[in-house]
């Protein structure tokens, strides 16, 4: 029996939405008790948190680990270490690898590699359609038995509504979670930025923000028809929010997420064709950013994720239209999210509701909360500690972060998974 | 010295005094070109490479003549055929060329921002000869010089830019330049060929051509880029000509002394009636070509001066 007592901690509780000083006892990998004042240690190992924040570890849905296929961009080892350093205790991997994760056999490869090399929990997603081609559904039942926690074609939209409605119907019979990418494929074809003044100024092909709402409207109609469990991976525009709100009010089984880059950056950050700011969907206007941050604070958007997408230098050092999309985010997710806290746009419990609690609820995990019986997946962090990000110091194999050189606040001091310390700030 | 730029990548970052400096010099070159005065010492000993990743006859010829008139050693590289097909990236191509120590690099590329990217990787002066749908600065400068010579000024004019604004780098550079010099800009296009957010640039936007042309001093037509019409932006060429082609009836809404411009090459009977294009009392299209050489001479002259000044600095002080 091993016991660890965290004392003098600022406890961030996303369930009760409280931010109070206290202590927390961990025994055999589980949280067993929470105290207002620290009890007698009685032989437990004591960790003095020094008044810093203790919060449930982040559960990041939609992380791209480039195994199989592009291990030079990111491996389970490098992604796992990056996650640990970033305060992410569970990563939910995307199936858009080479090849796609669309059979129980490839899923087993992912689980085996993760088990061997990653210090954090890894839960795999599987593709919804074979090869992510949008034509035939995958073996959803077998994949679920093999451990797939959700089904998604990642950044591809299943354009054939008949295929998608059947997949949703079949998924419902298994109570499987389907994650959708909400971008109308016709309007967004070839787009590199969001349409508007900036796109016109730079002469880049743009997509109207309406493309997101159109795709969300379509998926909502299909949910009404099929009753499936559905999560929209990234809602990034103000115009999509009323549709989301209405669907939730009508009792549909729908949740929504947003990537950290859409909460902290806007289209103008692309400036002179900086390809590290090219993400999918493209960065939006400042008005959209503010609206989406507010939706997270209000709980309309449930989840914040990093949308961690490693890309090597070669795929980014190209003219903007030709450059690859995506940014790494595991290590910058927390300090970037804390920008919203420091800007007084959201408090810490609500931030961790979106980073930890809601992802856990969506995946039906016990983690993501400071509660008796929950796994001791914890992070200790100083929300105020300032630093300047140097991308060469990232643990990810790929260094494609838009925050290179940025002044940020918030350092992870320690990360625990099932009560074991897997990372400590040196 | 009021032209400090290292490269000429676009109009966006030029100051109005820099534009005026360049146009004043180009004006003198234009007169000298007419009189046959040579200036072969200006770029003597310098190497100019024209790198065109996209087809061009006119612009490339104009840059070549400008360089040769100033005494540069000019080399043309047709890039569609060579290294791209072999899979070389733009940056590798840039680094390879840079190792040959050229002094002036003239680049055209089909992607917006590609010339900016290339300029970051080389030590010489880079001139943007058109990048995607972004900028074509020497075209805007030659248009400005043509207007200034025809109208006697380059401010407080009412200027209409008509046609395929959405796909036109010429339009973007002109909007920026003419805006910086405090002119009224009216954009005329079918809504499918008008990029979004243009009113935020301080332009007036018109879908009706006759309304848009009312009392303007300058009518600037754009080429309808047929190769970019893949999405069916307009129903047909003949309907386009009927509604947006410049003919005598539509031109009658402009001021009686309004000039007609076109960056070339023209599609006669699509965006402009042949008789208008050939009307020596209205059309300044041939002058635009003439001013093109003068403007490019001026631009290369100024950039070469800055390049020499930078190279003359002792090592380490500005590094």
UniProtKB/TrEMBL annotation, chain A:
Keywords: Pyrimidine biosynthesis, Zinc. GO terms for cellular component: cytoplasm. InterPro entries: Amidohydro_3, DHOase, DHOase/Allantoinase_Hydrolase, DHOase_cat, Metal-dep_hydrolase_composite, Metal_Hydrolase. GO terms for molecular function: allantoinase activity; dihydroorotase activity; metal ion binding. GO terms for biological process: purine nucleobase catabolic process; pyrimidine nucleotide biosynthetic process. Residues 346-420 form the Amidohydrolase domain. Residues 51-237 form the Dihydroorotase catalytic domain. NCBIfam families: pyrC_multi. This is Dihydroorotase. It comes from Yoonia tamlensis.
Automatic annotation (TrEMBL), chain B:
Carbamoyl phosphate binds at residues 58-59, 108, 136, 139, 264-265. InterPro entries: Asp/Orn_carbamoyltranf_P-bd, Asp/Orn_carbamoylTrfase, Asp/Orn_carbamoylTrfase_sf, Asp_carbamoyltransf, Asp_carbamoyltransf_Asp/Orn-bd. Coiled coil: none annotated. L-aspartate binds at residues 86, 169, 223. GO terms for cellular component: cytosol. Pfam families: OTCace (PF00185), OTCace_N (PF02729). Pathway: Pyrimidine metabolism; UMP biosynthesis via de novo pathway; (S)-dihydroorotate from bicarbonate: step 2/3. One of its GO terms (molecular function) is amino acid binding. Residues 6-148 form the Aspartate/ornithine carbamoyltransferase carbamoyl-P binding domain. Heterododecamer (2C3:3R2) of six catalytic PyrB chains organized as two trimers (C3), and six regulatory PyrI chains organized as three dimers (R2). Belongs to the aspartate/ornithine carbamoyltransferase superfamily. ATCase family. This is Aspartate carbamoyltransferase. It comes from Yoonia tamlensis.
